[in-house]
Amino acid sequence: MTIAAVTMPVAMSGVVMAALRILLSVIWTAGVVSTIAIFKFAGANTSSMRVQYCRGICWLFGMDIVVHGQVSKDRPLLIASNHVSYLDILAFGAVTELEFVSKADVADWPVIGAMARIGDTVFIERLRTRTAHARNGIAERLAAKRRLMLFPEATCGDGNRLLPFKSALFTVAEPLSGDPAVTVQPAAIAYTRLNGMPLGFGWRSFFAWYGDMTLASHLWRFLQLGQTTVEIIFQDPIRENGPNPGQADRKALSVQVEKASRAGFNSLLSGRIAL
Known about the structure:
The protein is of the alpha/beta class. Helices cover 38% and strands 17% of the residues. Strands 1, 2, 3, 4, 5, 6, 7, 8 and 9 form a nine-stranded mixed beta sheet that branches. The chain is globular, with a radius of gyration of 18 Å.
């Protein structure tokens, strides 16, 4: 499945193209987000609106989303993927209806924080002393049979490799007494092509947001690059986590999900899966 396959013209200069993309994105965001806020205030379900918003931004940003595999229809569902950039959220959000799990300080970011709150993002503090509180916030959504997106690396990588998954974050997949069992689906995302040409090792860092990079400078540089192919793979869901698994099961689940995500990520980068 390919999303946002219609490309914007790339013959214009990078600076002009980036400026145009920003202008159109601001207009699109103002219109859609205000509409979502109104419907949300009225108590309506805005999940499909958020998908359309992400698809629109991906098109404006020149992101051609290619999906391999399918999102599980199980509920509740926890999707776990590697994390390369804030752009991942747009890409996954354009594919299916999701609610994201994010670090708490994102809620205070200008513009992005407001958009995240409108999108029903679950904000968690990743301090060890706050793990139980974070788990409860996510567990409430899962108990309501929602679909959540988790980035278990707990940070962004450089686009060339996966970082170790944090097993503590998988405590949310351990249902409490009386709660439905949670299906966990490993996934992976990779930025694989620029203007149709395969990306090499050195180029992938242009799409990754990590280290001390600022959001504004990274986004400005990205928007000048042209048309980007973003590939997402959904691996087979894991349904073996029955009621009240023990501590060892949580760690084993983290290892199993990381292994599947890593395999998917490597297959995307190696081009073993046809576009």
